[in-house]
Design a protein that fits this description.
Structural class: alpha+beta
Number of strands: 16
Helix content: 25-40%
Radius of gyration: 25 Å
Number of helices: 16
Largest sheet: 7 strands, antiparallel
Shape: globular
């Protein structure tokens, strides 16, 4: 059994060298490692400046598996212990080999070139023979929400006899712009999930493995329960334990803007009247500015990504010019709070038809967000770890690709005007960074270059002549739409 991971010069300046750094495997020197039931080999079929591909080949010895107690067939089918698809089809054996050979790369560490580990790169992955319970549709269902373009081709039982139909195997091909660490963790979890089998006993330690490998993506996956159940051999107690752990991670994840308290914490300065307009707080002025921009655009189908407790969503629903309002958040707690705030159970049928509320992450592509007129990231990006910002840009500007995107974020230069904020502190304990105006404009310009948008900037709140406004707003417009 084997898989290949390739990249092109689009994602890296020197693909062969830098992919080798990330994997801690020298392209010029093949490597082998003994694993349960066989031997794993790492080779590079191609390694040029234009294209680099690494291949993991796993030679499985069915007899060694049986002797180790890890290849016993069900119901005492003795011959089945030795005659099976283990040497040829990707399975949990391949996932274990991935974990052993690329352990450092999976945790996102690259001591020689640390900046590489945080960089998204263009990846092409192929698994030629993958057992897939649920067929090609299941492969697309599990990989697509993670930002992959999926091409799962069913393998016929016999190419010479088409009437026999397809086998349970697919030739899986994935393409996407992701961190290598994320890609390896996706494969580590989902290969045995698609096979729906493991070659070893599944105990409580597997819950920790699942949660560790699924950190940052599994908690927000629309099929996380299915993934957890299959990965844990359909053992309900273990599955429930894993889901609880994933919920706890989601509540403290950098993409979630809801605090664990019943009432979310406000940012410093949000609840106080803004200088220059004593009637409204900065939070109200920010929401008002966003809604005005959306009206100015003539947007009808809009999304609030990272909606939190749903305050902006409530304001959008009051305006009938918005025919569809999509509200998403990575945190299940946030969505529950939003449902209560919006009184979804008491809504009229007409208003309820205009609202779509579901769990989703701003750093993973979600097909449900495609085709919108506008998307809003209001005070969201600063809650995302900087290494994940390329993934956010790809998910929003590349995959969802709305006609317009409205982004607001604090202006760190204005922090000196908040008397209660200590020097050097952020406005919210969950902020991972706060940008100056120049830093925000640099990021916006890089997004425009990659994804084909134009951007303009506006001030929200009093525009201080020395330090600028408290909130900065960027309006991105798709050049094709313009």
């Amino acid at each position: 059994m084997f898989l290949t991971i390739g990249t092109t010069s689009t994602g890296l300046s020197a693909p062969a060298t830098e992919l080798g750094f990330l994997l801690h495997k020298n392209p010029a020197r093949p490597q082998s490692l003994s694993v349960a039931g066989g031997t794993a080999h790492v080779v590079y079929p191609e390694a040029t400046d234009e294209r680099c591909t690494v291949a993991l080949l796993l030679e499985v010895d069915p007899i060694a598996l049986v002797r180790s107690g890890k290849g016993r067939a069900a119901e005492g089918f003795t011959l089945g212990q030795y005659v099976n698809d283990r040497p040829y089809a990707a399975s949990s054996l391949l996932a274990v080999a991935l974990g052993k050979l690329f352990r450092t790369a999976m945790i996102g560490r690259c001591d020689a070139r640390p900046e590489l580990a945080a960089r998204a790169m263009t990846l092409d992955i192929r698994v030629p023979a993958l057992p897939c319970r649920g067929g090609a549709a299941m492969a697309a269902r599990l990989f697509s929400p993670l930002g992959w373009s999926v091409d799962a081709r069913p393998v016929p039982l016999d190419p010479e006899i088409p009437s026999w139909g397809d086998s349970r195997y697919v030739d899986l091909r994935l393409h996407g712009d992701l961190r290598l660490a994320d890609a390896l963790n996706h494969l580590y979890v989902l290969l045995p999930v698609l096979d729906d089998a493991k070659h070893y006993w599944v105990g409580s330690d597997e819950v920790d493995k699942l949660v560790r490998a699924g950190e940052g993506w599994l908690g927000s996956h629309p099929d996380r329960e299915l993934i957890s159940s299959r990965y844990l051999a359909h053992r309900k107690r273990l599955t429930d334990s894993a889901l609880e752990a994933l919920d706890r991670l989601a509540e403290v994840d950098g993409e979630s803007i809801v605090d664990s308290q019943e009432e979310p914490l406000a940012e410093v300065g949000d609840d106080s009247p803004a200088e220059g307009d004593r009637r409204f707080s900065l939070a109200v002025q920010r929401r008002t500015a966003v809604v005005e921009v959306l009206r100015e655009l003539g947007a009808r189908r809009v999304a609030d990504l990272g909606c939190g407790e749903g305050v902006l969503v409530a304001q959008l629903l009051k305006d009938s010019s918005f025919s569809e309002v999509v509200a998403t958040d990575v945190s299940a707690r946030a969505l529950t709070y939003a449902e209560r705030r919006l009184h979804v159970d008491e809504m009229s049928d007409r208003k309820r038809e205009r609202l779509r509320l579901f769990q989703s992450s701003v750093t993973y592509a979600d097909a449900r967000l495609a085709g919108l007129d506008a998307a809003v990231l209001m005070e969201v990006i600063e809650h995302v770890d900087p290494p994940r910002l390329p993934a956010l840009a790809h998910a929003v500007f590349g995959a969802a690709r709305p006609g317009s995107v409205v982004v607001t974020t604090p202006n760190s230069e204005h922090n000196v005007r908040f008397e209660t904020l200590p020097a050097g502190a952020f406005r919210h304990p969950d902020h991972r960074f706060e940008w100056t105006r120049a830093e925000f404009q640099d990021w916006a310009a890089s997004v425009c270059r990659v994804y084909g948008y134009d951007v303009s900037f506006r001030a929200v709140g009093p525009d201080d002549p020395e330090v600028g406004p408290p909130t900065q707003l960027a309006l991105f417009r798709l050049k094709e739409a313009a």
